[in-house]
Amino acid sequence: MNRAEGYFHPAQDIKSRLIEDHLSLVNFLVERMVTQVPASVSREDLFSAAMMGLIDAANRYDAGRGILFKTFAEHRIRGAILDEVRRLDWFSRSLREKQSRLNRTLEQLEHRLGRSPEENEVAAEMELGIDEYRTLLTDVSHLGCISLNQSIDGLEDSPDFIDNLEDAGTPDAHENLEARELTRQLADHLAGLNEKERLVISLYYYEELTQKEIAGVLDLTEGRVSQLHSQALHKLKAKMTLHSRRSLRPAGFDEWDP
Question: Whole-structure pTM over 0.85, yes or no?
Answer without folding.
Answer: no
